[in-house]
Design brief:
It contains two helices and no strands. It has helices spanning 21-30, 49-70.
């Protein structure tokens, strides 16, 4: 869950809030977690497909960057 300054409880796309998503994703990689990742996004329920897509893109981009960095 990410919170823009002053807003408590609202989900925001990964990388735009206060959660340290790079550290969270890196820890999953470090622990060699295999399988799917689910995005729970409870804000803007009537129109959150774009925000969820941003979260998915963030994770994919992070992992792609790690692949190029370490190979």
């Amino acid at each position: 869950r990410g919170h823009p300054a002053g807003a408590r409880g609202a989900d925001v796309p990964y990388g735009t809030g206060t959660s340290n998503m790079p550290e969270v994703i890196a820890e999953l990689v470090r622990q060699n977690i295999k399988g799917n990742v689910s995005v729970e996004y409870e804000s803007n329920l009537q129109n959150n497909v774009g925000d969820v897509g941003q979260c998915i893109g963030y994770v994919r981009g992070f992992l792609e960057g790690r692949k190029h960095h370490f190979h």
